[in-house]
Amino acid sequence: MEMELELGLGLPCSTTEAVDLKLGDAKRSKKRRFEEAFEEQTTLPLFDDGSDGEVADSCNDNCKQVFYRPRTKELVGWPPVKCSWTKGGSDTDEGSYVKVTMEGVVIGRKVDLSLHHSYEDLFNTLDRMFPYKQPDGSISSASSSNHHHHMVTYEDEDGDWMLIGDLPWEVFVKSVKRIKIVGLSKQEETARNY
Amino acid sequence: MKVQSAMFYFPEEVIEHIFSFLTHHPDRNTVSTVCKAWYKIERLSRREVFVGNCYAIRPDRAAARFPGLRSLTLKGKPHFADFDLVPPDWGGLAGPWIEAMARSCPNLEELRMKRMVVSDESLELLVHAFPNFKALVLVSCEGFSTDGLAAVARSCKSLRELDLQENEIEDRGPRWLNSFPDMCTSLVSLNFACLKGEVNLKSLERLVCRSPNLKCLRLNRAVPVETLAKIMNQCPNLEDLGTGSLLADQFSEAYVSLISALQKCKKLRCLSGFWDASPLCLLAVYPICANLTGLNLSYAPTVQGQDFINLIQHCVKLLRLWVLDSVGDKGLAVVASACKELQELRVFPSDLFAAGPATVTEEGLVAISTGCPKLNSLLYFCHSMTNSALITVSKNCPNFTRFRLCILEPRKPDPATNEPLDEGFGAVVKTCKNLRRFSISGLLTDQVFYYIGKYAKALEMLSIAFAGDTDQGMTYVLNGCKNLRKLEIRDCPFGDGALLADVTKYETMRSLWMSSCDISLRGCKALATKMPSLNVEIINEWEAEMEENLNNGVAEVISNNNNKHINNGNDERKVEKLYVYRTVGGPRTDAPDFVWTL
């Protein structure tokens, strides 16, 4: 999946730079925002927290595509709630958030695993976060285990990258450090679907 | 007029006595402008001062003018600082104010501050300079630690109120609670819910034991059920309780103790906290629900679904309810059927990163408006909203004074019609004649601003994001809203034309905030030139020149010293953040280098 972000150039980890990329066009358009984001590639939708360095991570991790870095990677201060709300005011909650990146997607996300009870729950969430556009234009899930084009991997506490789904859910939650959705090469696709 | 001239022959004491009936600040401000004599009488007899913008006046001047001051309320950073739009170290320092008061106002008893930066040293000064100090209320402040709290606890001989709401407090250990002297028995209100760390439970119990006047107690998450039960047994007169962590085993002594303790608190009207609340502990709360007027479940994501319904259906006298959107439209429907007296509702987003099991939509809001016609204050985060729902809501509840609706996805249209939400929000301003505070969202054109300018005559504060098409939108608001005091705008296509459309308007307002809009340095400079009574401040954290290397994705930032750039010629540059406010204090002397006063 290619994310052609036709954006201005700039450093991703600024938290205060303007989100003024293609907003000029986006403002006049009355299209729904999600479609905008994935067709016209303006800014990606919100729901992103202050996950500094997301872009840097995905750039450095084996991304061979050439892409522009956006001037900002997130919508600062939106939605307008004080940040203490999102974490429930406790430090212990922070442990259950894991970063999720998808190959070719510049902006990473975060998922609160404590709100999920099974792999299926997690895949549903990932589907929502990273809808995948098929070559024929239809949107489908990038992450479900029987999908043909992607696989979901995670880094465990030992630093190894593993395929998701082998461990019981409770064990997985304790050992996962971060998640990455990678595209399958043609060969791997064939092998998987065979 | 005859009556007026007769006033001059009244002794000062009589005039002062007459003034004592004026409690409303604007009224007192007005009488002070009538003549010199009245100015003098008013200032010497003034006991309470409210400063809505700490930079609107120099602290020395305020302190010198009101030597008899007993109560001071101060607000610092602009509201959007709550959403990380104002850089750290921007300002809002409490120190100069406390120092000025220490010099001129020895009778100070109460200090209330919001969005200010307070240091431990300032807190030390506070409690030593004012022998009668009784009440400290800090809301959304930062810069201090539990050591500062220890200083307050230790030195205040007759502290009545220590109220800490949503502050960033550095945790230096739990000993601060020990600092309340044994002879301190005057506490009426203690709120440390925002403290993240441990507290000394024994000290807490002892403190509560020797505070017979305690009416309001809000604990933090570190306080377990056992302690809560012990405390409640000591304070049967408690009116406002914020629980600690509400996890308990069914057959534990703590749980049994909690039930009996709660039942004794006949005066309990307001409940909050509910951290980690287990359904079991909620059961303990049912017996007191019928008398509750205030309930805050916004820190309790575990209270949802049937647990929430079981709880809320008992709360028939509820006036104020704060919940998370995980209660869903279904939960709100039960609120609508049970809480007929409801006046204020706040629904916060529970999970910003993925839609949780339930969220709220326009259906929940319509249900509430149908069941709770007394509703006058709303803060509602939702995933979608329709024009017809908003029209229905405003018909059902014409009494809104505060209406804040946040559709989580910016610029989202009405999903039923794919149209902007102009008509829906327009209906709110048309019907709700007493609307004082308004926040709008979703897809909006200039039309909504036309409606706001035309109908929202009582409006004092307006918050806009991702809305409008042209300068005309902002101009409608500036021209039409006669009582506007605060206008805050982000990510809207308003430019210099809108900014300069009515420059004298800003003198009638407290402040204007614009970020990520379309204004240029030239426009801001023009405003500053035309209106010397305003501080026109630009926040530019970095003027970065980017060098981009596409092939390996490396970018370098060259951050320039901003001060050199203010006059280096390119006035067409867009201004990222603008903060304009009226002031008699002149330009800030404590501005950091990323704040430029034009």
Going by helix content, strand content and strand pairing, the class of chain B is alpha/beta
Total number of strands of chain B: 25
Give me the oligomer status: heterodimer
Uncertain runs of chain A with pLDDT below 50, 5 residues or more? Answer: 1-73, 85-95, 134-138, 142-147
Please work out how many helical segments of chain A DSSP would assign: 7
Give the SSE string of chain A: HHHHEEHEEEEHEH
Mean pLDDT over all positions of chain B = 90
Provide a quick synopsis of the model.
Chain B: This is Auxin signaling f-box 2-like protein. Chain A has about 190 residues and is of the alpha+beta class.
Name the descriptors.
heterodimer; A: 194 residues; alpha+beta; five-stranded mixed β-sheet; 26% helix; 16% strand; disordered N terminus; B: 598 residues; alpha/beta; 21-stranded mixed β-sheet; two-stranded parallel ribbon; 21 helices; 25 strands; Auxin-responsive protein (chain A); PB1-like (chain A); transcription regulation (chain A); AUX/IAA_dom (chain A); repressor (chain A)
